[in-house]
Write a sequence for this structure.
């Protein structure tokens, strides 16, 4: 179930990237082609990019396409790779994600209390919504990490071949 949710989010986020390109292209064309520019337009593609970046993390982790130092990892046995993945999830990924959720709650709550908008005249009104994606994305990555840690656990217990 979690994998299907993360895949759906990932497919949706991939369209956000297309929107970023279109909005950014429109902003550049308007600015340099017609000498027109709006703060809200510039901030909108920055917000779209932030949303895409924050929401894609769990999907990338779920698909095992995240950046990893592969020089040492690649040539090892399935059991060694399983230990690296399990310990990495338990000792690094999960604590860091938990800390991000914990540390960002007050920051996001403060933004919601005042319904924070852009500090720029003519900017976007919903900055608090973008800030909300910080703990949401960390929680999604944490859930993806829990899901992904189950596979090396099964390998180490002898239930999977680890290929």
């Amino acid at each position: 179930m979690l994998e299907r949710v993360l895949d759906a989010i990932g497919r949706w986020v991939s369209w956000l990237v297309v929107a970023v390109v279109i909005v950014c292209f429109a902003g550049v064309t308007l600015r340099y082609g017609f000498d027109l520019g709006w703060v809200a337009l510039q901030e909108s593609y920055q917000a779209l990019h932030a949303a895409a970046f924050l929401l894609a993390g769990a999907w990338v982790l779920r698909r095992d396409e995240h950046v990893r130092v592969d020089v040492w990892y690649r040539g090892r046995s399935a059991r060694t790779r399983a230990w690296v993945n399990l310990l990495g999830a338990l000792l690094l990924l999960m604590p860091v994600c938990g800390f991000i959720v914990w540390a960002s709650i007050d920051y996001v709550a403060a933004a919601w209390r005042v319904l924070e908008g852009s500090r720029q005249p003519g900017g976007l009104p919903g900055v608090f919504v973008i800030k909300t994606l910080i703990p949401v994305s960390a929680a999604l990555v944490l859930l993806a990490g829990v899901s992904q840690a189950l596979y090396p656990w099964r390998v180490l217990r002898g239930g999977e071949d680890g290929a």
